[in-house]
């Protein structure tokens, strides 16, 4: 008698099958709360699912005022109280339909990080990701290098923190309006930009990568800043009395969890920033509570590492604290530029933006005068437009 063949099922395919058999359930309720729309999400649990749900809501510019997070065994249950940017309940049928389609059973599974609401693969742009040392005029120098290589800057998003900078720039071929394809040209651009991004007396070199695939920009900026270790130092300017976020990490030995408690000023996308950081650090949120009132936010999470263990050393605890503090603070120097004017005007805008950024980053700009002179000479040698030569 012949034996039956053994069919090996890939873990990923098996997980997809289970999710299709148990599709997410989404309930949007405008009657349960007086001042917010209540969104309930039930689904099979997988790593990163909490971030994906929050990302969908924040990409729709919804404000999460309260959240209750719970996962029991293999099941995930969340409740979010949300409003629009004006503090009103969500009654727009298009937005409600978008939430249902993105999170509900019609989607079969939650969207991947690179395919959230409003984010689709792009064939028109080349995406340049950069990290380096922040200083006065950096954004204008980046735009100038790209313009000199006949690249148009369609959009740029930039964060600075602790004298470090991360940027995602969308560029196109000036002559065709499409993505930049020539590998030799991209290599030359990379060499120039890495030189621009290199700081004075800094052991960390500037980095640049090129991609044709669009990812979620804000998550990439968090990942780039984290990879650049912007959390390792804290720069506090003289007379800077702005309150810093309070982060505590404690043990919950009887339940074998680590408890993370955060208090900070409330702002849009704060929940996304903290959950994004925990997820990218490979922690799983099993239970949590989020509450905001009077411009203050309180977040409490019961977490374990993906290996099933809680935080088990003082060094790891301090690292989590520093990374969460950095995640909360990065958006205070968030800059987004979309080009809608001829490049010299965009260049002037970049100069102004760079000055604003430096003003909010004390300690940035050491050796700036020498670099400014070097940069001016470089622009003259490269034949940049006359109106760009004097800053």
UniProtKB/TrEMBL annotation:
Q: Give all residue intervals belonging to the ACT domain.
A: 38-115, 127-207
Q: Report the GO molecular function annotations.
A: amino acid binding
> This protein's superkingdom?
Eukaryota
- SUPFAM superfamilies for this protein: ACT-like
Alphabetic keyword roster: Repeat
Q: Which residues form a coiled coil?
A: none
Q: Does the keyword Repeat apply?
A: yes
What the entry lists under InterPro entries is as follows:
ACR1-12, ACT-like_dom_sf, ACT_dom
Q: What is this protein called?
A: ACT domain-containing protein ACR
- Gene source species: Musa troglodytarum
């Amino acid at each position: 008698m012949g034996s039956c063949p053994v069919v090996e099922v890939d873990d990923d395919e098996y997980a997809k099958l289970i999710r299709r058999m148990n599709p997410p359930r989404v309930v949007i309720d405008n009657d349960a709360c007086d001042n917010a729309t209540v969104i309930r999400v039930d689904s099979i649990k997988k790593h990163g699912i909490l971030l994906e749900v929050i990302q969908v809501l924040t990409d729709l510019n919804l404000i999460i005022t309260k959240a209750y997070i719970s996962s029991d065994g293999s099941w995930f249950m969340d409740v979010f109280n949300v409003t629009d940017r004006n503090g009103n309940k969500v009654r727009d049928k298009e937005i409600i339909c978008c939430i249902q389609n993105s999170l509900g059973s019609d989607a079969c599974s939650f969207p991947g990080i690179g395919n959230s609401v409003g984010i689709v693969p792009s064939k028109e742009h080349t995406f340049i990701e950069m990290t380096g040392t922040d200083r006065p005029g950096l954004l204008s120098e980046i735009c100038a290098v790209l313009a000199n290589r006949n690249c148009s800057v369609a959009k740029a998003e930039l964060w600075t923190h602790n004298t470090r900078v991360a940027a995602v720039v969308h560029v196109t071929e000036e002559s065709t309006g499409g993505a930049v394809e020539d590998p030799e040209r991209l290599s030359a651009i990379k060499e120039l930009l890495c030189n621009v991004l290199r700081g004075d007396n800094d052991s960390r070199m500037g980095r640049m990568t090129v991609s044709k695939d669009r990812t979620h920009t804000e998550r990439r900026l968090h990942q780039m800043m984290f990879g650049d270790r912007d959390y390792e130092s804290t720069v506090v300017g003289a007379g800077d009395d702005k309150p810093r976020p309070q982060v505590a990490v404690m043990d919950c030995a009887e339940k074998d969890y680590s408890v993370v408690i955060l208090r900070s000023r409330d702002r849009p996308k704060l929940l996304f920033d903290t959950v994004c950081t925990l997820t990218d650090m490979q922690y799983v949120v099993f239970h949590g509570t989020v509450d905001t009132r009077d411009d203050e936010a309180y977040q409490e999470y019961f977490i374990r590492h993906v290996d099933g263990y809680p935080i088990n050393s003082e060094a790891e605890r301090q690292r989590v604290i520093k990374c969460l503090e950095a995640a909360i603070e990065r958006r205070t120097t968030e800059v987004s530029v979309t080009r809608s004017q001829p490049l010299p005007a965009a260049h002037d805008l970049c100069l102004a933006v760079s000055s604003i950024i430096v003003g909010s980053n004390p300690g940035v700009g050491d050796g700036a005068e020498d670099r400014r002179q070097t940069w001016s000479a470089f622009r003259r040698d490269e034949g940049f437009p006359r109106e760009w030569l004097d800053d």
